[in-house]
Design goal:
This protein has three helices and two strands; from the N terminus they run ααββα. It is of the alpha+beta class and 105 residues long. A two-stranded antiparallel ribbon has the order 1-2.
């Protein structure tokens, strides 16, 4: 496993997403629609080594009924745009930190 500089590690664990993930995870049962978004980036760190950076988020779709297909579709489209933008930024930030730590910045 490649070493990640302490500075990059500290910066990568200091986001609201990390605190949500690391704070008492548990099982959640939902009675309403939920959309799960995730983004993964593969980082080539040299010497034929890669690491994966992943972020995911689960977004409730509120009071949308499964019977109202048009409202459900609109809610999914809106939540997907929002969710994927959040997790893309999270994985992108970590990608940059890891690449910079490997280049000695």
């Amino acid at each position: 496993m490649p070493k990640i500089s302490k500075n990059a590690f500290e910066q990568s664990t200091d986001s609201p997403l990390d605190s949500m993930i690391n704070s008492n995870p548990g099982i959640s049962i939902s009675t309403f629609p939920v959309l799960v978004c995730g983004v993964n980036r593969k980082i080539n760190i040299g010497n034929f080594e890669n690491i994966d950076v992943y972020a995911g988020i689960s977004l409730p779709l509120g009071d949308v009924s499964l019977e109202d297909k048009e409202a459900l579709q609109a809610a999914i489209e809106s939540a997907a745009a929002y969710g994927f933008s959040i997790v893309s930024k999270e994985t992108g930030d970590r990608y940059v930190l890891i690449k910079e730590s490997q280049q000695g910045k």
